[in-house]
Amino acid sequence: MLRYFLRRFMYMIMTVWVLSVVSFLIIQLPAGDFVTNLASQYAQQGRQVDQARLDNLRQRFGLDRPVYVQYFSWATNLLRGDLGWSFRERRSVEKVIGDRIGLTAAISIATLLLTYLVAVPIGIYSATHQYSIGDYIGMFVGFLGMAMPNFLLALILMYILLNAGQSVGGLFSPDYMRAAWSLGKFIDLLKHLPLPILIVGTAGTAGLIRVMRASLLDELGKQYVITARAKGLRETKLVFKYPVRVALNPIASTIGWELPYIVSGGVITEMVLNLPTTGPMLFSALLTEDMLLASSLLFFLNVLTVMGTFISDIVLVIVDPRIRFTEREA
Amino acid sequence: MSEAISVKPERAELSAEERYYLASQWQLMWQKFRHHKLAIIGGSVLVVLYLAAIFADFLAPYPKDIRFQKFSYHPPTPVHLFDVEGKFRGPFVYATTSKRDLETLELIYEVDEAAHYPIRFFVHREPYKLLGLIDTDIHLFGVEEPGAILLFGTDSIGRDLFSRIIHGARLSLSIGLVGVTLSFFIGVTLGGVSGYFGGIVDTVIQRIIEFLISIPTIPLWMALSAALPRDWSVVMVYFGIGIILSLVGWGGLARVVRGKLLELRELDYVLAARVSGVSEWSIIRVHMLPNFASYLIVSVTLSIPGMILGETALSFLGLGLRSPAVSWGVLLEKAQNIASVAIYWWTVIPVLFVIITVMAFNFLGDGLRDAADPYKQ
């Protein structure tokens, strides 16, 4: 098992390395750089743009060096925990994204938990009551949840809350916006979290319900269920003790693609709700070609999911003896 | 002699059971598919939507860029059958007059119940080329000037939303097909290579796919589409977005192809063909391909909605297609602001079309999957 962990760990390290290259290169793709962008902004405002000053800026930011040199210095600084300098914010990238990465991680993890807590019971109900009205409602809501873009759900819920006279958007009330972390601020955050979590979670929940339903239906038709029933086991006990446990395994292994999905959907929801998280920041960094900030954000969003997947794989191997044995044989 | 050779009796003489055993794979699939009601509905809805996109010029009462100067953010005009006195007049719309509120500077619309504009069918209006070939100026319906039929209201500069949604269907519905076609070629080629050659090539391709599946798509799409040059023409951006959408989508297809190839390679009938001296290429083409074609179709159908949603999301953020291009996502760009949506609720109508399309594709895909599964009755 240790060998398996080591191998998975090596894969993860390699993936993270590839991610760093990809994240950096993608941000380099647009024509021009932050300085040309700045220059055109100045020109729009009618301000004088001095070529020498632009060159100077470029030199200071290190934008005049070849791409691979820039990557190398970014990557080595990354290893030392220094994420570089945000040109636009005129602060170091860690300071800019520190809080935001934490909030994004909090929202993603909470959403993941909610998704499973909601989807599994509904999936079980749908499978055990196949073709009942509840099943059909569940399936329909599931399909709708998958087809509805996150931003529409965000708009609808915001509209409802707005009409109910609630403050909408953001993660903090105005009083706590600039305040330092305290218990009060934390409680305020907890009050604002349900809305984004609900919105981001809907699509994932819809997909999971279908997986849970299908995999439980497969199990319910098997011989051992019929045997247990023939022996007079109570239906609830039977269902929850055997087939549900088996059906949960494919569900658990979907964390690997569920997490990227949540992070992905989160970006748009965060923008509509105007949350102080990574999504809106990535968007503006991309538009202004604030390269180190954008690269670092893209990199961390991806690393977050890759690490989540790694942890879930490890947990799965520990929990499910069948995977453990196949791994040993391999 | 000739009678003895014809093993297959006439179709009419067959019992239901015999027909079942003699049916080809595709006939069996069609029989199973027909019983899947949701899939049939989904398929029909898609046919209607795609036809609407093809004949957009004819169905839309107005061209996509025409502006009603006096009618910015005009609410939808309801179609009436009876007038205020309860008299039947056939379908018509009332005239509206606009007035500017001098305090808020907002336009206020008042329904003028004195003036009726009956809806006429096959009216002559702005000329266009039907299917890009036939010069004509006939639109399915319309009302006489100065009346206007605005079924879904207008946008900020007074363009008819209904007409724009129908025109927007062209880009929104086809970009998924562009993306899917590209990912189909990449997926089938790389999946085929991966499954057929195995070894180190297989490992490398599988790692790449795992890598692509493990990263969140939207941030990646955002970064890639931010890289599209701002001065590109609509057509170039369109294909650019199609390529970006397909870059992530091919992984799933490649996996299906590889998995099936690995499975089929070991089957007895493939071995039999090989022993009989059939060439490798013929084995793939004649014996293996028909066997997993159905899985490919299912996979393709199920990957289109993701791409349509992707385009909508990107354009919604202003990173995808941009006006003057018209797609559902572009139409929704203005709907980002909750305050404006709360007043001008009709600006989110395009999203209903996105939802309907995506659900229709999902239903169709589900039906096809069940039909393609030989073990499902």
Briefly say what this structure is:
The complex is a heterodimer of chains A (330) and B (377). Chain A is mainly alpha-helical and 330 residues long. Chain A is built from 16 helices and two strands.
Your description of this structure?
The complex is a heterodimer of chains A (330) and B (377). Chain A has helices spanning 2-28, 34-44, 51-61, 67-79, 93-128, 133-147, 150-163, 183-192, 194-220, 223-230, 235-241, 243-252, 255-273, 278-288, 291-319, 321-329; strands spanning 85-86, 91-92. Chain A is mainly α. Chain A is built from 16 helices and two strands. The mean pLDDT of chain A is 78. In chain A, a hairpin with a 4-residue loop joins strand 1 (85-86) and strand 2. In chain A, 78% of the residues lie in helices and 1% in strands. Chain B is α+β, with helices and mostly antiparallel strands and 377 residues long. Chain B has helices at 2-5, 16-22, 25-34, 37-54, 56-59, 161-197, 199-213, 217-226, 234-265, 268-275, 280-317, 328-332, 338-343, 349-372, and strands spanning 80-82, 88-100, 107-118, 120-130, 134-142. In chain B, a hairpin with a 3-residue loop joins strand 4 (120-130) and strand 5 (134-142). In chain B, helix 3 packs across helix 14, helix 7 (199-213) packs across helix 9 and helix 9 (234-265) runs antiparallel to helix 11 (280-317). Chain B starts with a helix and ends in a 5-residue tail after the last helix. The interface between A and B is large, with 48 and 37 residues.
